[in-house]
Amino acid sequence: MEITWLGHSSVCINSRDEILITDPFDTSHNRMMPSRKSDIVTVSNSDPKYSTTKAISGNPYIVNGPGEYEIGQYYITGIATPLTESTSEDPKINVIYTIRAEGLVICQLGGINQKLTSGQLDQLRQANILLAPIAKSSSLAHETLQEIISAIQPRILIPLEYIEENDDGTPTGLDTFLTNTGTTDAIGINRLNIDETKLPAELKIQLLNPQNS
User: CA 132 to CA 160: how far, in whole Å?
Assistant: First the structure.
């Protein structure tokens, strides 16, 4: 399996030449979504930063809600989490996806901004690769992410939704996250080639360089 980061919360997963792309984005955060063709697209929520499916060619199957989906080589489960308070007149949801293929289980948190219940965490415990937003301005606070990491205990965590450096020189969300996790040896790579025999024994933070083409 090959995993590449397209920017923001969008990741391209290639399993035996079957392509799945998560959360295609618009240009509202100053990064252009690269032109890509895909067989499947998952959408975490209705915000254009996660749902610009028109950016993807190939007439993909769109997964945009909770439930179970078996599409080609992928088995996908969507778990609804709230984006707004339940008392809101128009409550909105974020969907966390677990994506199974080639003996691996990838968990994509999407635009999560609420703590997860114990029942929701139980549904994610088999994940061995976690795709997680870690930007300083991310809707998911670092302490909440640490709770998720402790509960799921993934083997690989791929940070998403961060910028490499701030114009004013202040620490970025990535800097804070790496400090909080005690990570000193994280090096960005263009793509992660992984199978279940190559999973590390303990958690590894793997940075991916955004692929703009």
Answer: 6
Contact 69, 90 (CB under 8 A): no
Strands (DSSP E) contained in 40-179 are 40-42, 56-57, 61-63, 67-71, 74-82, 93-101, 104-108, 129-133, 156-160
Q: Please, are residues 8 and 49 in contact by the beta-carbon 8 Å criterion?
A: yes
Three-state secondary-structure class, residue 197: helix
Tens-digit pLDDT profile for residues 38-63: 999 999 999 999 999 999 999 999 99
Q: Domain holding 50: CATH number?
A: 3.60.15.10
Q: CA angle at residue 158 from 152 to 163, to 5 degrees?
A: 130
Assigned domain for 211 exists: no
- Contact by Cβ (8 Å): 149, 130: yes
pLDDT in tens, 60-87: 999 999 999 999 999 999 999 988 666 5
For residue range 173-194, list pLDDT tens digits in order: 788 888 888 888 889 999 999 9
Nearest residue to 78 via CA among 90, 86, 70, 87: 70
- Look at the chain and report how many structural domains it folds into: 1
